[in-house]
Amino acid sequence: MDIQTLTSVEVPTSLAAGEANESLTLYGLVDGGGGYTRFESESGKASRSGMWDGGQSSNRWGIRGVENLGDGLSAAFNLEGGFSLADGKQGQSGRLYGRQATLALKSESIGELAFGRQGNIGYHWLTSVATPFGNNFNQARSAGTFSVAEVRYDNQIQYKSAKLSGFQFGLGYSFNADGEQRYTVDGNSNQNVRALTAGVRYESGPLSAVVTYDQLKDAGNNSGTTAKSWNLASSYDFEVLKVHLGFGITNDGWFGTPSQLRNSDLSIGSIKAFNDGFRAYSYSVGVSIPTGTGGKILAGWGGVSPRKNGVAYLGRNLATQQIISLAYSHKLSSRTSAYVLGTYGKNIALVAGNKTQSFGVGLRHSF
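Above: the chain sequence. Below: its structure as tokens.
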């Protein structure tokens, strides 16, 4: 079938049993450019100049469909996969639909119940409120400061309520966060890594506010530790500028470190996932400023301050991670934009002396 036919979306059909409206959409986003990235650690320095793959937004494609069941009820599915523009490989550890694979029942008055691999509540609601970058713009992304901001769970059932006077509630549970759910043998501990995600958000005019909670329980045959994270964020649009503020507390582990802040050549890795006794505070402040037709300046600072080392970092002097970012995006059309971005980070992964710098320009097109 011709791609243009699919991207035109609304493809109504009439079924003999009744008039059920259906739509099918093929969509995607392609982002590429050129840039420079440098990492430093005690073991040395490493840099790379060349093509940027997804400098503003991660590359993706997907298919979604909706069937109107009547009385405000609909069935919907969404299958979305990530890929590298540089080499064409699939993202998310080679999953075909690694970004999202869900089947949902939606009600205008009750809300939405979705089954499958999907983002946690923080991914949906916290990300774009805590910072002006959301989970975009490479190393500037919210997930560099808030570990729950870019998390997806397999085997998840998630409910999001309908909005009531600006408020909305969400709750999700994953029976195994990564991979196929395993059986639990009688008399043995649960071998699955289980996750709980919840949140409340409020939106009214220029004001947005969100509170989220996540916990991730390691398998019983491993550490058995439960990592927990509370996060609060708010933004207000003054029209001449939009202000973003965020704060979070994460205990007994860390939910995820973006690949953009890791470098295997210098052993700059992730903050320890399960770490009994660990505590860190996350802070963010940022602004976005419209500059005429189609232009926007984005600036922000994010910090992760370790307060307790936990057993994994006993005897180590952890340092506060800080990331400062500045970007400009300009719309060339309703679907295409150009951007420029610069980021500086120090004490990456809470290790004193770990630094990173990046600068790039690129083009982003959605279809």
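The chain has one domain: 3-366.
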